Amino acid sequence: GGALLGGVLGGLISSTATTVSYATRSRSYQAMAPVATGVVLIASALVYVRILLEILAVAPTLLSQLIWPVLAYLLLFVVIMGTLLLRFEDTGSHEVKTGNPAELSTALVFAAIYSVVVFASAAVSERYGETMLYPVAVLSGLTDVDAITLSVGNLSQDARISADTAWRVIFIASVSNLLFKAGVVAVIGGTSLRRRLLPVMALLVVAGVFFAAFWPGGPAS
Q1: What is the pTM of this model?
Q2: b/e code 122-135 from CB counts within 10 Å (16+ = b)
Q3: Are 63 and 56 in contact (CB under 8 A)?
Q4: What is the chain written as a DSSP string?
Q5: What are the tens digits of pLDDT across the range 37-66?
């Protein structure tokens, strides 16, 4: 229970930091793989709750477009996590440090990323059109989903891009972030964790791309 709560808190702070933390520990303690798998998936799912809250704050008119694919994707997370919980194995307690999210350095890094993403998103949309926002989303989403979510949400709210493009760009950024976390697990995770988690994350990434490309409501581009 404590481990799963750690996944919730980790998702609210930083799902990437949580993934790095548990993947690192899984190398030295292979029996921790079931716990680490659940925590990483929970933290990753919480990213989508954060996205919905951020859009509600900066672009409430976009929420009606974004909420249904996000809820459907979260349902897929729930089904997968529920299946894994049926085979959950008890392990000893392990302290996992994700860092202090209120540190000044963290705030400054986010501000820098946000500024770059805001500029890049607006410039790309203005110069090359909405379609080119997708590469920006992929690159930005690798390390941070919040910046691209807030930036694209503001563009949508100001009617500078269509709502259909906006939610798909945000969704692609979130899938890119999930792919990055899969890479983290592959590089620094223990063998048992990789065996358990990578197939699941691959399934989620493929499903996420499918959702972004083919969800009804208009062409993806």
Answers
A1: 0.80
A2: bebbeeeebebbbe
A3: yes
A4: -HHHHHHHHHHHH-HHHHHHHHHHHHHH-GGGHHHHHHHHHHHHHHHHHHHHHHHHHH-GGGHHHHHHHHHHHHHHHHHHHHHHHTT-------------TT-HHHHHHHHHHHHHHHHHHHHHHHHH-GGGHHHHHHHHHTT-SHHHHHHHHHHHHTTSS-HHHHHHHHHHHHHHHHHHHHHHHHHHS-HHHHHHHHHHHHHHHHHHHHHHHHSSSS---
A5: 888 999 899 999 999 999 999 999 999 999
